[in-house]
């Protein structure tokens, strides 16, 4: 078994001491140390200063909200995010069913998106929906370059059932969505 070659200063203690002494005299002299400390103090504050974080697109509010019931017929979809998104590279799909394992699901229909001036919302309108569970599946590209995906499950009920359940006969207002999605 051969021993791997080492640098001369590692084999010879006197050589090691000479290298150490040279290193200390060049780099750790009091003048250089204070100069290095001054440079560090000058550079550190801008590097450590608080900056706004580039946030992933997370659902802040949605209409319909997750877990709510909406009347049968066309549904206005409005999903608001916490940051600007690239609407041209974003998708919004609608499928019948909740997406649970073992559940019969319908095909996913891609919804046409309406332009949003704020750049932080997906807006679309569905065709007439029959009563039952539905799943909005969204995927957005945030300005930080990350893709975020998620689902919003809601239920469509007959108009009569919703009118009887809600006080005043009006559907529920938009509420914060739960389960913001998956970051990819």
UniProtKB/TrEMBL annotation:
GO terms, molecular function: copper ion binding
A Pfam family matched in the record: CopC
Boundaries of every CopC domain copy: 56-156
Main location: other
Region (Disordered) residue spans: 163-184
Keywords, ordered alphabetically: Copper, Metal-binding, Signal
Biased composition (Low complexity): 165-177
Record-level GO BP terms: copper ion transport; response to copper ion
Subcellular location per the Swiss-Prot or TrEMBL entry: Cell envelope
SUPFAM superfamilies per the UniProt record, alphabetical: E set domains (SSF81296)
Entry GO terms, CC: cell envelope; periplasmic space; plasma membrane
PANTHER family tied to this protein: INNER MEMBRANE PROTEIN YEBZ
Protein name: Copper resistance protein CopC
The organism of origin for this protein: Roseomonas acroporae
